[in-house]
Amino acid sequence: MPASRSSASTLPPASVNFAAPASPVIAQPAQRRLIVAITGATGAIYGVRILDTLRRLGGVETHLLISAAGWLNIQHELQLTKNDLHARADVVHSVRDVGATIASGSFATDGMIVAPCSMKTLASVAHGLSDNLIARAADVTLKERRRLVLLVRETPFNLAHLRNMTTVTEMGGVIFPPLPAFYNRPASIDEMVDHTVARVLDLFALGPALSPAWPGLRGDDE
Ligand SMILES: Cc1cc2nc3c(=O)[nH]c(=O)nc-3n(C[C@H](O)[C@H](O)[C@H](O)COP(=O)(O)O)c2cc1C
């Protein structure tokens, strides 16, 4: 018997279909879901405004995580209670609950936002530590090739911060420091925050764009 014929006997039974799909399929969850984590960098308002915006838009199940330092900053910067925060999300997870649904890639989500993201959580994500549910959910988001957006906040940056941002970018994450824009001439902090939140949520294509397209600008010297 020719060699090619004998090796054919090791093929799997014909009933098993290993045919590749014509094009890559990125699974969309039947229920749209976003994980929102608030960590201990300054700027808790970003995480809270993201939850409020998602609640206003509707149609997205929100899973909220808040680190211990995140709570500290929420109380200091916003004077909000745990109940105030919990009421803004559909599901609230303890950061210690590494057995939660969102700790598994089998639980489909549209992705995860960490807002604000401390340098400590950035480091955990960059090094795949999964040492609490925030880092684990981010790790899962990356391994499942879902959208991960980190609103990293520190100033100035040291080399570890910069390297960790590069590492997360190389893994497919989006580093989105919440730096205010001035081209839209914001009249208040609320407008600055809303502008950033709109740009962040537009990365998830949850519906019509929230931030208006730049109309272009022509200089006098042309
Ligand atoms: C008032 C306050 C503001 C802070 N701001 C920042 C910050 O902007 N960026 C940062 O990386 N850490 C900041 N930290 C330090 C973090 O909270 C600290 O590193 C913490 O361990 C982060 O843990 P977490 O990522 O689990 O929330 C701040 C801490 C406090 C108390």
UniProtKB/TrEMBL annotation:
<dbReference type="InterPro" id="IPR004507">
    <property type="entry name" value="UbiX-like"/>
</dbReference>
<feature type="binding site">
    <location>
        <begin position="118"/>
        <end position="121"/>
    </location>
    <ligand>
        <name>FMN</name>
    </ligand>
</feature>
<dbReference type="InterPro" id="IPR003382">
    <property type="entry name" value="Flavoprotein"/>
</dbReference>
<dbReference type="Pfam" id="PF02441">
    <property type="entry name" value="Flavoprotein"/>
</dbReference>
<feature type="binding site">
    <location>
        <position position="67"/>
    </location>
    <ligand>
        <name>FMN</name>
    </ligand>
</feature>
<feature type="binding site">
    <location>
        <position position="153"/>
    </location>
    <ligand>
        <name>FMN</name>
    </ligand>
</feature>
<comment type="similarity">
    <text>Belongs to the UbiX/PAD1 family.</text>
</comment>
<comment type="function">
    <text>Flavin prenyltransferase that catalyzes the synthesis of the prenylated FMN cofactor (prenyl-FMN) for 4-hydroxy-3-polyprenylbenzoic acid decarboxylase UbiD. The prenyltransferase is metal-independent and links a dimethylallyl moiety from dimethylallyl monophosphate (DMAP) to the flavin N5 and C6 atoms of FMN.</text>
</comment>
<feature type="binding site">
    <location>
        <begin position="40"/>
        <end position="42"/>
    </location>
    <ligand>
        <name>FMN</name>
    </ligand>
</feature>
<keyword id="KW-0637">Prenyltransferase</keyword>
<protein>
    <recommendedName>
        <fullName>Flavin prenyltransferase UbiX</fullName>
        <ecNumber>2.5.1.129</ecNumber>
    </recommendedName>
</protein>
<feature type="binding site">
    <location>
        <position position="199"/>
    </location>
    <ligand>
        <name>dimethylallyl phosphate</name>
    </ligand>
</feature>
<keyword id="KW-0285">Flavoprotein</keyword>
<dbReference type="GO" id="GO:0016831">
    <property type="term" value="F:carboxy-lyase activity"/>
</dbReference>
<keyword id="KW-0808">Transferase</keyword>
<dbReference type="GO" id="GO:0106141">
    <property type="term" value="F:flavin prenyltransferase activity"/>
</dbReference>
<feature type="domain" description="Flavoprotein">
    <location>
        <begin position="33"/>
        <end position="203"/>
    </location>
</feature>
<dbReference type="InterPro" id="IPR036551">
    <property type="entry name" value="Flavin_trans-like"/>
</dbReference>
<keyword id="KW-0288">FMN</keyword>
<feature type="binding site">
    <location>
        <position position="183"/>
    </location>
    <ligand>
        <name>dimethylallyl phosphate</name>
    </ligand>
</feature>
